[in-house]
Amino acid sequence: MKVLVTGGAGYIGTELVSLLIANPEVDKVIVYDNLSRPNYNLFLGLRLQKHQKITFIKGELLDSRALRKVLKDVDVVYHLAAKVTTPFANADSHAYEQVNHWGTAELVYAVEESNSVKRFIYTSSTGVYGSSKIPAHEDTPPDPQTFYAASKLRGEQHVRRLINGGKIDTFLMRCGNVYGYSKSMRFDAVINKFIFEANFNKLVTIQGDGKQSRTFIHIDMVAKALNNLLTADLPSDVYNIVDRNLKVIDILDVLKELIPDLEFIFINQHLRLHELNVKVNPLISDTLHIRNDRSLKEELSEFLTKFSF
């Protein structure tokens, strides 16, 4: 099986590619990435015997000619490439539109013209639901409230053409806030940012009053779910990949247990920031084998051991 991973050098991509090259179902993995972050960690530490399975192509989503060329004989496409900058999700709307909306459109057009692609997997975001105190689920009407979320939803609309077409197994996977160690990890993600500050500064900065809740999932669970989706028996549809809903203050309480001398600073404490809870879909948990048997404290304790000092 020949697999293409757009954005394969990113946070989720690095972990997914590692699993794919170890997957006996996979003969070749093509990573298509423009290295815009920039991030070169994907290229470090692969075992020699697995190098023959992986190929890297530096390219842009808006380069339609390059996309059509790279899709030759590809069986499965994972579309992870996106413009993602959490703290500034309402800045630079043009960049979000270009990459997340029109870049996805170009890829879908190319896939539609391909004669080989049999399965298409798109990673979207639970951010498309917007803000809600009532737990969201797959049938909850989207209400994106940032440029980032709006651009991901517009990308979804192009992917839905593949679902409606019925010729290609198509999965639109909305991920919660991803956290956890990876050699390509993002430090703008909320838990990753907190644990970095806690470890090195013993001081965590919180926006708002800390009572806002979000939906989260560990990077290992996301990568495992996507890897298992390669051959999973699921109907083409929209699915949420989430694990737990947490208030920011709950995360801080766990960090305080692990680092007793930790201090907090609240900024704009008078503001009540938006919150979003999302229901865990048992079909996804069971079919993709991603039930979590670890507590948040266990996960964060292990996370802390990954730092050099």
Automatic annotation (TrEMBL):
* Ranges of residues in domain NAD-dependent epimerase/dehydratase: 3-241
Q: What is stated as this protein's family in its record?
A: Belongs to the NAD(P)-dependent epimerase/dehydratase family.
Q: What is this protein called?
A: NAD-dependent epimerase/dehydratase family protein
Q: Which InterPro entries match?
A: Epimerase_deHydtase (IPR001509), NAD(P)-bd_dom_sf (IPR036291)
Which superkingdom?
Answer: Bacteria
Gene3D superfamilies reported for this sequence: NAD(P)-binding Rossmann-like Domain (3.40.50.720), UDP-galactose 4-epimerase, domain 1 (3.90.25.10)
* Pfam families attached to this UniProt entry: Epimerase (PF01370)
